[in-house]
Design goal:
By secondary structure, the chain is of the alpha+beta class. The protein has 2 domains: about 150 residues; about 120 residues, Cathepsin D, subunit A, domain 1 (Beta Barrel), CATH 2.40.70. Helix content is about 40%, strand content about 20%. The strands form 3 sheets. Strands 9-8-3-4-11 form a 5-stranded mixed sheet, with no helix packed on it. A 4-stranded mixed sheet has the order 5-10-7-6, with no helix packed on it. The two termini are about 45 Å apart.
């Protein structure tokens, strides 16, 4: 089989970009297109090992691990802890496994004539349509998995939020809701929505001012089925989530949104506990 280097590189850049973006979605981490493209290009260069003579299996494994680490560092690096990078790496390999399986299946269904496996690298001389279809199917699969995992076991669980701000602390009842996808537009961090009455102990008399938010506040857009507008948010000094059923405690890095509407519970997306 003839291997066209331009097809090899272009399809790998396209696939790597998708893999990195999907990984970012699964771990709920913002990923800029520029960094993602650079990471995808770096990863595509390692596909050139398909042009080399057979390489020892152990060495191939090391090359694959190194290429994945380099892609993740280029795309997601910068201030991330080793634990966060490890989680990103595991998720990335999971996404790669799903995509490779679907792409391989499509190639087999098409007869397998345009497929070559060498040095742990798959070369598929596929049409753009086949590549796009495999991408859409893979993305749909991982999104469904993420949605299922986010909602699993959270529907009937209640939590206590221990929120600290300027030396003051309040405890707020909360529930998980996968429909709350509200995030801070500047940092990408999740936002927990609380009724004003539940966090009065943290606020000054004039807070929050929806017209001119003071120091430590900002407004972010929100929309629901019934309304839309601007929601004032602030960054607490500390926030701890306690599961009322098993007593599990977790410190989280989020913003608090304050609404004038009466709310029986604060609402957050369960993804913040993962």
């Amino acid at each position: 089989m003839y291997i066209y280097v331009d097809i090899l590189i272009i399809t790998n850049i396209y696939a790597n970009f998708f893999l990195l973006k999907t990984t970012a979605r699964l771990i709920h981490t913002p990923l800029r297109n520029g960094k993602c493209i650079i990471g995808a290009i770096v990863g595509s260069l390692f596909s050139l090992i398909i042009l080399l003579p057979p390489i020892n299996s152990f060495l191939l494994l090391l090359i694959r691990i190194f290429s994945a680490i380099l892609m993740i560092e280029v795309s997601f690096g910068g201030g991330k802890s080793p634990h966060e990078l490890l989680k990103t790496g595991v998720t990335f390999f999971f996404v790669c496994f799903i995509f490779a399986g679907i792409e391989y299946g499509l190639a087999v269904l098409s007869g397998g004539k345009n497929m070559l496996w060498h040095n742990s690298t798959l070369y598929v001389n596929v049409s753009l349509l086949t590549l796009v279809i495999s991408t859409i199917v893979s993305y749909a699969a991982v999104c469904f998995f993420r949605y299922y995992m986010d909602g699993k076991n959270f529907a009937d669980t209640t939590y206590d939020l221990i929120i600290t701000r300027n030396g003051k602390t309040v405890s707020v009842n909360a529930v998980g809701d996968t429909c709350n996808n509200l995030t801070d537009v500047f940092t990408g961090k999740p936002v927990i929505v609380c009724g004003k009455s539940s966090v009065l102990g943290l606020l000054n008399e004039s807070e929050p001012d929806t017209e001119a938010p003071g120091i430590g506040w900002r407004l972010i857009p929100f929309s629901t089925i019934h309304s839309e507008g601007m929601l004032p948010i602030f960054k607490p000094s500390e926030i701890i989530v306690r599961n009322t059923e098993n007593g599990a405690i977790k410190s989280i890095d989020v913003y608090i949104g304050v609404t004038d509407k009466e709310m029986k519970h604060a609402v957050f997306n369960p993804k913040i506990l993962r």
